[in-house]
Amino acid sequence: MSAVAHGHDDHHGELHNPMEPTRQEQIVMNRFGLWLFCFSEVFLFAALLAARFYLWRDPDVGALRPDLPQAPALIFTCVLLVSSFFMNRAEVAAANEDRATFNFSMASTFVMGLIFLVGVIVLEWGVGGETHILPTSGAFGAVFFAMTGMHAIHVITGLIFVAIVWRNGNLGNYSREDHWGVEACAIYWHFVDLVWIFFYPAIYLIGLAVHIPIH
Amino acid sequence: MKYFLTSALVRGLVGQIVTTWLSYSLIRSFRMTVEGWTVPEVGLDEPAVVLACIIGLFGFLLSCGVVTDWLKMMAGHKPHLKHGAQGRPGWTRYVNIDVNHKVIGIQYGLNSIFILLIGGLLAILFRLELAMPGLQFLQSGDQYNTLFSAHGIIMIAAIFAGVGAMTNYLGPVLIGASDMAFPRLNAFSYWVGVPSAVILLAGIFLGGWDTGWVGYPTHSTTTKMIGVQMFLLGFYLNGFSSIASGLNMVVTAVYMRAKGMSYFRMPIFVWAAVAASILQATTTQTVGVALTMVVAQRTLGMNFFTPILDPELLAAGVPAGDPILFQHIFWFYSHPAVYVWILPGLGIISELLPVFTRKPLFGYKWIALSSVGIALVGMLVWAHHMLTSSMPPTWKIPFMLSTLLVAVPTGVKFFSWLATIWEGKMRFPTPMLFVLGSISVFLLGGLSGPILGTIGTDMHLHDTYFVVGHFHATVFGGFVFPFFAAIYYWFPKMTGKMYDELLGKIHFWIMVPGFWVMSLLQMRVGVLGMRRRIADYGPDLGIQVEQALITVATLAIGWSVLIMIYNLVSSVRKTELAPENPWESRSPEFLAPSPLPEFNYLAPIEVVGEPYDYGLEGATYAVVPTPAGD
User: Fold this and answer.
1) Number of separate domains in chain A
2) Is B495 on the interface with A (CB under 8 A)?
3) Of A207, B8, B244, B573, which cross-links B64 as Cys (Cβ 3.0–4.6 Å)?
């Protein structure tokens, strides 16, 4: 059974698509597709935010939040925000075929992202140290680890993305006309950053602080 | 045989089984060495099962090769899209990674029918059990619970595959494109569904589960049946397929339409597919969150859904979990999911009716926009599944109103169909019969909807067989019958052969009346007090005759589907070719050769008129280049 008849064979026996989109047309579609993907991810993070506002509340006092150390969270948030600046520089550098700036900016983005990730895991989650908040600390622990964890997975994906694009940039795979890889990486990185702008106040700032006893 | 054993399907399955088994043994033995972790001596170790299933998915994807091109891109290469069978026999394309959207569409279709048969078999098993009061051949309630739970989720997987079949095969063809916008992502969407289905099916045998397809906590977070984890994961991983194919279809429809095809000259099916795709691409994320939360609560002890808490934490003012949260997040997806199935189905009805009534589609723009309307309103009705829950009453009334609002865009479709049929020169081949059958059955489902959407009546009917009757009527009328209509209608296009008309009609005349009997009687026993999701009922309910008839009707439906499969399989083997344009359709794919060439059209087509001007002298929709010298 063959439900697809053969198309044009060129002399090498390879099939050739007469209507194949050009690279520029494909990039336009890629861009729209990636934005749609970000829009889709908005629903993922919105569901987590909804869980946070649904569960972290008291019928009498309203919104609650766990009493967590404020200083490290603020510092790591700043680091992540600044990393987006360097990501943008890297994209501009790729568009200008400026290899030195590209390398420096990608390195900065990567290091700052890594600082954020390690900061969340070591200082916020308290892996390998003393902490009050555990995954089992009621709705506080559950939602806190779900939100930071889901965001951390995206940061890890972003770091891998940055590393791959960084390497491909050094292989000379991006040009003034076609640096879609860098652009995609930048859109994704900014998106992950943007999510944290919503998550940070939801976790650390909004609501009445409740101290979690060691249990 | 050699080609089959080395195909991507077999490689993937072997890869999945090997990696799942290896990682399960490794994780289990690792967990046994850690102090303080309890690992059961006999039986499955639940956290190890969860991790191993996830790793097994990667095992499948890597060994079947669907991600190879992406890995090459990451390594800095620029792999070209490989088209065609690459020197192998033509049939091997369906068991290998292929980027052609028509191949992927047929892969989805075959997959859909295969899973549909499994799900149907489960339904027949528990229908036989329900034919009489008392437990006949099932050993326990748990077995019954596993059967109906698995029937639910497996049928959902089958329907999503069927939607994938229609949107993938028809989408690019109808808009005059050569393929989807992202062919590799398209192949990924199909192939990620295969290991997910394997995980789901394996769940039946590794313990089963008794949560229904909804998996509500706190039952799903506490049940001892480990199959629930496989159910949650299989459901979750299928979501990747939905999201990716949804994105793909939207981008394709926006950027790859033929010259001259404005949005309001798009075939109506594409409008419906885009509306469904938007829902698929967005709301699927939220059910992913809900399912992940249940997995996390079961494996990591994260308390999202249990209102019980450590007294010390409670005294300090730490909030506890809430099971209602799950229902909100879950239904935010799972209600629109039904629209993801029925929108393409209703699109097929609108697409086929003008062909067989030889009249323009009545109110094209209204139908096009009503699909978008159903999709948007559909996102705002989720809590009508929770009218009997402890949700505050101030939430219930807005959700009742929004639910009733769905009837407006749906009514637009119904009146358009009626007006299209009105004074038409009707023809009645099998696809048209199924279209008319869909309309009648969907009307039954539609009319029973507001009864359940209204708070007062829902208090009585919630969780009864009335809901089962309503749900099956909407899904059969909105998806199953249109899907069959589409299969018969495009079968000559897909294969170049014609199906057997008599067998097609026999299929119709068994299945549609059979379904009417089944659905109406389900509603009746529901009103008389039969609960859903229960293995047995008392003889004093007085519903034995109805229950026995429902079972007979179910068997009839099952046989009629087998007739269809026989019809299609035997027709593919015919030597006689189908006529070029058996339905005298104006659609561009019927102006091209059958089966369609690899890239659909030999050169870009051009749209010069309205799509459904049947019966209008001299009206042309599309100019399709014909092969020179043919």
Assistant:
1) 1
2) yes
3) B8
Residue B303 and residue A138: Cβ atoms within 8 Å?
A: yes
Parallel, antiparallel or unpaired: strands B622-623 and B606-607 = antiparallel
Q: Is residue A82 part of a domain?
A: yes
Measured between beta carbons, which residues in chain B are less than 8 angstroms from residue A27? none
B531 by DSSP, 3-state: which?
strand
Domain that holds residue A131: 24-210
Question: Which amino acid belongs to residue B56?
Answer: G
Q: B523 and B568 in one domain? A: yes
Q: Is B599 on the interface with A (CB under 8 A)?
A: yes
Q: Which token pair is A56? A: 């972290």
* B301-315 confidence digits (pLDDT tens): 999 999 999 899 999
Residues B138 and B38 in one domain: no
Quick check: B303 and A136 CB within 8 A? yes
C-alpha span between B208 and B225 (Å, rounded): 6
Return d(Cα B429, Cα B426) in angstroms, integer. Answer: 10
Task: Confirm whether B90 is domain-assigned.
Answer: no
- CA atoms within 13 A of residue B82's CA, in its CB half-sphere: 13
B258: DSSP letter? P
DSSP B175: T
Output the CA torsion sign for B482, B485, B487, B491: negative
State which amino acid sits at residue B176.
G
Pairing verdict, β A208-210 and A62-66: parallel
Helices and strands, number each (H, E), in chain B:
21, 2
Model pLDDT for residues A182-211, shown as the tens digit of each residue: 999 999 999 999 999 999 999 999 999 998
* Number of domains within chain B: 2
pTM of the predicted structure, to 2 decimals: 0.94
Give yes or no for A25 touching B (CB within 8 A).
Answer: yes
B302 and A146: CB-CB below 8 Å? yes
Query: Cα–Cα distance between B305 and A63 in angstroms, integer?
Result: 18
Give the pLDDT of residue B329: 96
- Residue A121 and residue A114: Cα distance in Å, rounded? 11
Q: Is residue B84, in this structure, part of any structural domain at all?
A: no
Residues of B in contact with A5 (CB under 8 A): 496, 593, 595-598
Do residues B233 and B271 share a domain? yes
Range 153-192 of B in CB contact (< 8 A) with A: 177-179, 181-182
Q: How far is CA B500 from the centre of its chain?
A: 27
Is A11 within a domain? no
- B167 lies in the same domain as B199: yes
Domain enclosing residue B35, as ranges: 1-79
Enumerate residues 50 to 89 of chain A having a beta carbon within 8 A of any beta carbon in chain B.
50-51, 54-58, 64, 66
Position A3 in a domain: no
Residues of A in contact with B255 (CB under 8 A): 25, 28-29, 32
- Tell me the mean pLDDT per 10 residues along chain B, length 630: 90 96 94 85 88 96 94 92 85 93 96 95 94 89 92 94 96 95 96 94 88 92 91 94 96 96 96 96 95 95 92 91 96 95 96 96 95 94 94 93 94 96 95 97 95 94 95 96 97 95 97 96 95 91 94 97 97 92 93 90 92 90 75
Residues B290, A142: Cα–Cα separation, whole Å: 13
Q: With an 8 Å Cβ cutoff, is B304 touching chain A?
A: yes
Whether residues B10 and B124 share a domain: the answer is no
Mean pLDDT, range A68-85, rounded to an integer = 94
User: Does residue B313 fall inside a structural domain?
Assistant: no
CATH number at residue A36: 1.20.120.80
Rg (CA), chain A: 22
Is the same domain home to B489 and B609? yes
Number of residue pairs across A and B with CB atoms under 8 Å?
203
Q: Is residue A57 part of a domain?
A: yes
Question: pLDDT at residue A2 above 50?
Answer: no
User: Phi and psi for A172 in degrees, rounded to 5?
Assistant: 80, 30
Please check whether residue A49 touches B, CB under 8 A.
Answer: no
Contacts of A62 in chain B (CB under 8 A): none
